[in-house]
Amino acid sequence: MAVTESVPGGPHGEAPAGPEAILGRQSARESSARTYARALPIVPVRARGLTIEGADGRRYLDCLSGAGTLALGHNHPVVLEAVRRVLDSGAPLSVLDLATPVKDAFVTELFHTLPPGLAGRARVQFCSPAGTDAVEAALKLVRAATGRTGILAFTGAYHGMTAGALAASGGARDVQVARLPYPQDYRCPFGVGGPLGAELAARWTESLLDDPKSGVPLPAGMIVEPVQGEGGVIPAPDDWLRRIRRLTAQWSIPLIADEIQTGVGRTGAFWAVDHSGVTPDVMVLSKAIGGSLPLAVVVYRDDLDVWRPGAHAGTFRGNQLAMAAGTATLAHVRENNLAERAADLGRRMLTQLREYVGDLACVGEVRGRGLMLGLELVEPEADGEHRAGARPADPSGLRSGQASAPAPGQASGSASGPAFSPASAPVPRPANPELAAAVQRACLQRGLIVELGGRHDAVVRLLPPLTISDEQAAAVLDRLTDAVAAVARDHASGPPRGRRQHRSA
């Protein structure tokens, strides 16, 4: 039987092609595990740069960017040209792990961007095409290299959807994975935030490793995101990350940096570890390195390369189109200083977001680094109640435990300042995922695509392409702030007070 006969509806038995019909068939046919399609009921048919056009003719500004995959936006000319060259050359498109000129060019460009301490002695393993495959390979690698089995990971982490990657992520339970506190300000696990909170998180890790009765054997490796993405856009303080690097080196624990979402200029440096000057032993890379096509690799120090032939493989690790697109993307980001551009524009966007919506009662915190930005939506406080996340006034004008106020999107400094006391603890409001979902819907109505994340899916996330212009950034902020203000007005607590008026969209 012909396929068209199995889905009747058109004049010749073909399926109706309108967006509502397509969405209806998706709902009827696809798994209940689908996610983005539920919150974003659109049917993209064309895209370029920041803009997506739906089958209904509506245009959207895409600040989801394939969950961070599209460093250069949709269908960038350098990516399209690179793919066309491979297609027109007659080269094989899938070659397992055979050497090809396309692969050689990709590895050369990739190594050119690596942290200096790793680039000179790196090895690369091509995995199956998803980032979670790279995480699995990295965990297998450090276990083989050390002869140990346990893994240290962090609360709030997200490393993928396969069994090993999930075990190291925040929502799983695995006896082989010990979870450590990840420092953050608004929901600090120690109730203090700032440098003091980061210092306490580092001491916790140090104590766990140093205490023979901690119940955690010496692990095979530690995996960390320099900025937690799915965890709610939480940048790791640079001093804390350097402290973690020293501890792992002291105990001969390979440090794995998960740069799947943070890499290729996203955070304002080519790799997010570059902010702190940390050189990890292993890096897991995917998303943007494929230039919008599926590609994942593990890059690691050569003395860890103890694998035997075939110890880790994957049928689709030789995707030539992805390697060509990835080479073009890496080179374009590097040659055009797009990481520096992301740092500058990200700081300005973060400052403006704080100015426009930061004092709304339903906004707990505005945070980010580079072009990874997030707004956490919370339950507004009642009249006369302490402001969400605020600390009592300090004579120095700084928050308790802070030596100096960090620049927007940048990590805090060293742990100096007054000792913690209960009166100085932050008072974060309960997360409100319903408000965040309402903001996402309001953004879509205004032609803006955003993602949700965070511990309770209460963080509205922005991941625009690095090629976004100043004018486009202003349009994104206009639509987002208008959506947040509208949702705040509709909330039962009534319209916010004392807010700077946003620019009209």
Please give a handful of descriptors for the protein shown.
505 residues; Aspartate Aminotransferase, domain 2; four-stranded mixed beta sheet; disordered N terminus; aminotransferase
Tell how many strands the DSSP assignment holds: 17
CATH superfamily of the domain at 147-253 and 391-425: Type I PLP-dependent aspartate aminotransferase-like (Major domain)
Task: Give me the CATH architecture of the domain at 147-253 and 391-425, please.
Answer: 3-Layer(aba) Sandwich
Give the radius of gyration: 23 Å
The secondary structure category is: alpha/beta
- Low-confidence runs of at least 5 consecutive residues: 1-10, 386-423, 495-505
Strand order of the largest sheet: 4-12-11-10-7-5-6
What report would you give on this structure?
It is a single chain. By secondary structure, the chain is of the alpha/beta class. The chain is built from 15 helices and 17 strands. The protein has helices spanning about 5, 20-30, 35-40, 65-70, 75-90, 100-115, 115-120, 130-145, 165, 195-210, 240-250, 320-335, 340-355, 435-445, 470-490, and strands at about 45-50, 50-55, 60, 120-125, 150-155, 175-180, 220-225, 225-230, 235, 255-260, 280-285, 295-300, 365-370, 370-375, 450, 450-455, 460. Strands 4-12-11-10-7-5-6 form a seven-stranded mixed beta sheet. Strand 1 and strand 2 (about 50-55) form a beta hairpin. The longest helix is centred in the C-terminal third of the chain and has 21 residues, at about 470-490. InterPro entries: Aminotrans_3, Aminotrans_3_PPA_site, Dat, PyrdxlP-dep_Trfase, PyrdxlP-dep_Trfase_major, PyrdxlP-dep_Trfase_small. It is an enzyme of class 2 (transferase). Its cofactor is pyridoxal 5'-phosphate.
